[in-house]
Amino acid sequence: KWQKDFAPHGNLAQNTGLSPDQFLFAMAGFREMIAGILWVRADSFFDDGNYDAILPLIRLVTLLDPKELDVYTTGMWHVAYNFTDEDERSDRRYIPAAIALGKDGAKNNPKTYEMYFELGWLWYNKIDDQYDKAVGYFEKVNSMSDAPDARKHLLASAYQRAGRLDDAVSQYVKLLESAQKDFENDP
Known about the structure:
By secondary structure, the chain is an all-alpha fold. The chain is built from ten helices and no strands.
């Protein structure tokens, strides 16, 4: 009875009752599941301090699921801030890997502000000496429709740190005008 009613015969896609396109679409979800399992494993390596094992896993996860923003953002954070040297200080040798991860995330998710914000924040907060790079990413954030005002204020601060005081004041004025309009619409 099992053989007749349940055992797979012939082409697996035919046995599912799905068209070939539908079957491939269903199998694509398998990639995301594997990516999720690997991401959990990468986090356990971080907890154990096995940093060398994390970078290849992060890369594999982003190849399997290039739209998962949390992997890029959390991966960047771990790599840039939490990988430490022998004295428990942040190891700056990993910053280029964090930047590369962020750029890859932005390339794979160009329609959302999030990766541009993370890259801008890394240049603004961690690298702390090339504010023009932060300005470029924060300007991109400000140009995107999904960016909340709470993320847009950092552009003004980056302008200040880059010595562009007129641009900083202009950005603060734009934010104030936007907040006033929002308040008028919903006091």
